[in-house]
Write a structure and sequence with these properties.
Helix content: 10-25%
CATH topology of the largest domain: Nucleoside Triphosphate Pyrophosphohydrolase
Strand order of the largest sheet: 7-4-9-8
CATH superfamily of the largest domain: Nucleoside Triphosphate Pyrophosphohydrolase
Order of helices and strands: EEEEEEEHEEEHHH
Number of strands: 10
CATH architecture of the largest domain: Alpha-Beta Complex
Largest sheet: 4 strands, mixed
CATH class of the largest domain: Alpha Beta
Radius of gyration: 19 Å
Length: about 190
């Protein structure tokens, strides 16, 4: 049976604006040997699928330094320490797109990469949206807002036009909720 590895000690390594790195020295319950593991500490993240009444997704194109490419994504960002994920989602939607939503639904929560990260990413569906302001991006963001028909999303993922794993996860949550099988599951679970 797999067991958790006891932590012997922790050492903070380096802190950056959006994340910190720490080293945990842990002991393998199988071998009793100590090992160093590195963890990226970050606030939780949010991403939003803003859906218009005519079934278009408000998406953003932006330059990403890690991949050195312009990506097609949904709005998202960090949850500030004093914010709830929903409040952060509303803030990020407004800042990155100029849109606001009247209806919010949390459709999923994932660990971005449990081998390295300790945080969670919350996905929200934003409905009854409307444009209320100009973009207000951070100084490190260059953003172009594009409206993409929801029906095109699976092909954009298939052909690699959308390749951000957390964005793909968000759409997986959305499409699973829309599937007939998922609706039957929800109906049955309500009757338990």
């Amino acid at each position: 049976m797999i067991k958790p590895w006891p932590k012997i000690r922790t050492r903070s390594n380096q802190s950056y604006r959006v994340f910190a790195v720490r080293t945990d020295i842990v002991r393998s319950p199988r071998t009793n040997l100590e090992h160093d593991f590195y963890t990226i500490e970050s606030n939780n993240w949010v991403n939003i699928i803003p859906l218009t009444s005519d079934h278009r997704v408000v998406m953003v194109k932006q330059y990403r330094h890690g991949s050195r490419k312009v990506t097609l994504e949904i709005p998202g960002g960090l949850v500030d320490s004093e914010d709830s994920p929903k409040k952060a989602a509303a803030r990020e939607l407004l800042e990155e797109t100029g849109y606001q939503a009247k209806r919010w639904l949390k459709i999923g929560v994932v660990n971005p990469n449990p081998a390295l990260f300790q945080n969670r990413c919350y996905t929200f569906l934003a409905r009854d949206i409307r444009k209320v302001a100009d973009l207000n991006p951070d100084q490190t963001e260059d953003i172009e807002v594009v409206l993409v028909p929801l029906s095109e999303i699976p092909n954009l993922i298939r052909n690699g036009k959308i390749d951000h794993s957390i964005v793909i996860t968000a759409f997986t949550h959305y499409f699973l909720r829309q599937s007939e099988g998922f609706q039957r599951f929800l109906k049955k679970s309500r009757n338990l």
